[in-house]
């Protein structure tokens, strides 16, 4: 885990300081200006995802609005998550409307320290990945590099056997959903869009179950994408560009809209873009999982690099 922003581009450093300050002000129990010394309920704010990759330097060039970039945040609160979650979500929405930050802000994880540790013990590896690769942008009081209680990992051979079984089931199901979408494409575009949503969701779940050896809780497609990208930020490139971003929005909404809106409509061109992106997702997931299996076969629990070499982090 990193404790400095100095390695990041200057614009990102400025944005993150503004984001932390804004969230802290919104998380104070009372907004009465007389209560200037009322502490925030936020304990730590940790950046994860694309801006924790190793290639960033202060001189890195950025393109504002680039869809592959976003500020993915974990917020650890002192207690009573239900009381603070709604204000945090409103604050993130306000930040994204303000035009004062260069890239979208995503509140991927908000939890108490105790609940995070319990989830880690249950194999919730996304948190473990944040422990390894995350960057602390705010901390109230002391914070150690061993912030989370790391769970025991099964031996590589055991992990491989279980992960391969999970993958064979989940990814095969994703492929069947994709085949079903193709079969409907010419006669019922709405049904095809719904099948594509399921094909994408099952692909993300296949990736997650190979890493954490448990299926993630049932979630909307956007949440599954965020979980997967917390482990492999390069997956965000699939949805890079305005057209791809709009396509993901249509894909995510299809799960409810196709079923509950009799007037649902999607053009053949929009459906074709959706097909292309989901095919790309399947290829990427298959490639990442193949690298993971190859790494496990060597006896290593390390996270494979994108080029196939082992990384130092677990995953």
Could you walk me through the main structural features you see in this protein, from its secondary elements to its overall organization?
This is HEPN domain-containing protein. It comes from Paremcibacter congregatus. The mean pLDDT is 84. The protein is 53% helix and 11% strand. The radius of gyration is 20 Å and the shape is globular. It has a 4-stranded mixed beta sheet, sandwiched between helices. Strands 5-6 form a two-stranded antiparallel ribbon. By secondary structure, the chain is of the alpha+beta class. β5 and β6 form a beta hairpin. The chain folds into 2 domains: 10-139; 156-298, Nucleotidyltransferases  domain 2 (Four Helix Bundle (Hemerythrin (Met), subunit A), Up-down Bundle), CATH 1.20.120. It starts with 9 loop residues before the first helix and ends with a strand.
Using brief descriptors, characterize the structure shown.
Four Helix Bundle (Hemerythrin (Met), subunit A); 315 residues; globular; 2 domains; alpha+beta
List the helices and strands and how they pair.
Elements: H1 10-26, E1 42-48, E2 71-77, H2 81-98, E3 105-112, H3 113-121, H4 125-133, E4 135-139, H5 156-185, H6 189-212, H7 221-231, H8 242-260, H9 268-297, E5 302-304, E6 310-314
Parallel strand pairs: 2-3
Antiparallel strand pairs: 1-2, 1-4, 5-6
Task: Give me a quick take on this structure.
Helix content is 53%, strand content 11%. The chain has nine helices and six strands; from the N terminus they run αββαβααβαααααββ.
């Amino acid at each position: 885990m990193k404790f400095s922003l100095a390695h990041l581009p200057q614009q990102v450093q400025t944005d993150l300081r503004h984001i932390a300050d804004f969230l802290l002000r919104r998380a104070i129990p009372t907004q009465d200006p007389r209560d200037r010394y009322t502490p925030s309920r936020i304990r730590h704010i940790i950046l994860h995802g694309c801006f924790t990759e190793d290639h960033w330097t202060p001189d890195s060039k950025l393109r504002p609005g680039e869809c592959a970039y976003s500020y993915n945040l974990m917020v650890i609160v002192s207690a009573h998550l239900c009381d603070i979650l709604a204000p945090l979500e409103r604050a993130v929405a306000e930040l994204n409307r303000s035009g004062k930050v260069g890239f979208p802000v995503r509140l991927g994880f908000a939890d108490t320290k105790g609940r995070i540790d319990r989830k880690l013990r249950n194999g919730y590896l996304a948190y473990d990945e944040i422990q390894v690769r995350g960057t602390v942008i705010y901390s109230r009081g002391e914070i150690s590099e061993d912030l989370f209680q790391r769970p025991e990992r099964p031996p590589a051979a055991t992990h491989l056997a279980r992960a391969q079984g999970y993958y064979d089931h989940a990814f095969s199901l994703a492929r069947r959903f994709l085949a079903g979408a193709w079969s409907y494409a010419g006669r019922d575009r709405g049904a095809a869009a719904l099948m594509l949503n399921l094909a994408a969701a099952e692909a993300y779940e296949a990736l997650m179950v190979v890493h954490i050896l448990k299926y993630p809780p049932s979630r909307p497609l956007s949440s599954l994408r965020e979980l997967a990208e917390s482990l492999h930020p390069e997956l965000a490139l699939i949805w890079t560009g305005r057209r791809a971003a709009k396509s993901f929005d249509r894909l995510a909404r299809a799960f409810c809209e196709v079923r509950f809106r009799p007037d649902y409509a999607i053009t053949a061109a929009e459906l074709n873009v959706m097909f292309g992106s989901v095919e790309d997702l399947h290829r990427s997931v298959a490639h990442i999982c193949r690298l993971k299996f190859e790494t496990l076969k060597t006896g290593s629990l390390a996270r494979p690099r994108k080029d196939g070499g082992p990384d130092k982090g677990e995953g």
